[in-house]
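Tokens in:
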């Protein structure tokens, strides 16, 4: 594909191909090979209208390790702060003959719109509450490197589902790879219409985390999601204390899970609210693969850039 806007843009073969390419990037990741020449002469712009630590830096490093020229722009410091529209901003950058625009934006659907306005490949680095496809790919890569083929594995996704683009992309990619998925949230943070989506795509929903962790279908991994208070203009219900009691991955909850599956894994896309959705103890436990997720982001984003930009003449 030319763009990566939604995880649904990738069929199983394409996801597998990206994950296999990511595996082959290991030598670069370990710095045994310093740089690949693959994207020499290509220009990649990271245009971030919303803050980021992991996604922006890993796309920049991934591009540099593949010899692309990479440039970072953010809303603050660009002409967006003078009132320039998204369309004018991206068409301005596009006029500089760039090969890829990696966009993060607080509006769902922004990347889809941008793809209609520019010639460059567009990669969605997170758009509002819609999707974050490279996060889902790096999560799948991290899981596969720990527990192998995801066919039939049980992944539980817990948290503020209403505001989570990570949840939406992860459900799609995990289902594409044959995993079984259960999503858990308090009723106030369960997205409207999830019933018909879960029925169509074959994943389970629950309001009761302990019931899911203690049920017959023992989880292979639990992915905790951030409570996104910046997207809650109407206040946060339940209260932080009630949230932690009902939905936080506390040490006793993690111990209960590990008693049933000693190899169960703890994931979080970051940034974490320690003490709210995950305790510091759980985040730093041996079960936690939070920093592996970050490391995987480099290999996976190199692989995504390769598949979108390298073209046959570079691959052959
Ligand atoms: N997981 C994630 O997208 O993190 P950043 O917001 O730091 O990029």
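Residues out:
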């Amino acid at each position: 594909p030319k763009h990566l806007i939604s995880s649904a843009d990738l069929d199983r073969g394409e996801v597998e191909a990206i994950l296999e390419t990511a595996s082959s990037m290991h030598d670069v990741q370990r710095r045994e090979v310093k740089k690949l020449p693959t994207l020499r002469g290509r220009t990649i712009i990271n245009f971030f209208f919303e803050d980021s630590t992991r996604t922006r830096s890993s796309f920049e490093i991934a591009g540099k390790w593949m010899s692309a020229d990479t440039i970072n722009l953010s809303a603050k410091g660009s002409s967006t702060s003078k009132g320039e529209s998204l369309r004018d901003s991206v068409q301005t950058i596009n006029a500089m003959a760039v090969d890829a625009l990696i966009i993060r934006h607080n509006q769902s659907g922004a990347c889809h719109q941008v793809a209609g306005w520019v010639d460059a490949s567009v990669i969605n680095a997170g758009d509002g509450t819609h999707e974050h496809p490279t996060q889902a790919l790096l999560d799948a890569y991290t899981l596969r490197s720990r527990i192998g083929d995801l066919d039939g594995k049980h992944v539980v996704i817990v948290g503020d589902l209403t505001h989570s683009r990570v949840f939406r992309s992860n459900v799609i990619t995990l289902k594409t790879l044959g995993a079984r998925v259960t999503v858990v949230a308090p009723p106030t943070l369960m997205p409207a219409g999830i019933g018909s989506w879960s029925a169509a795509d074959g994943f389970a929903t629950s309001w009761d985390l302990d019931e899911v962790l203690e049920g017959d279908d023992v989880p292979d991994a639990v992915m905790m999601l951030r409570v996104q208070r910046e997207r809650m203009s109407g206040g946060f219900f339940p209260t932080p204390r009630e949230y932690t009691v009902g939905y936080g991955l506390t040490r006793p909850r993690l111990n209960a899970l590990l008693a049933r599956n000693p190899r169960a894994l703890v994931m979080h896309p970051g940034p974490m609210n320690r003490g709210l959705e995950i305790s510091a103890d759980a985040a730093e436990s041996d079960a936690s693969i939070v920093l592996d997720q970050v490391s995987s982001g480099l290999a996976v984003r190199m692989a995504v850039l390769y598949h979108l930009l390298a073209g046959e003449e570079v691959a052959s």
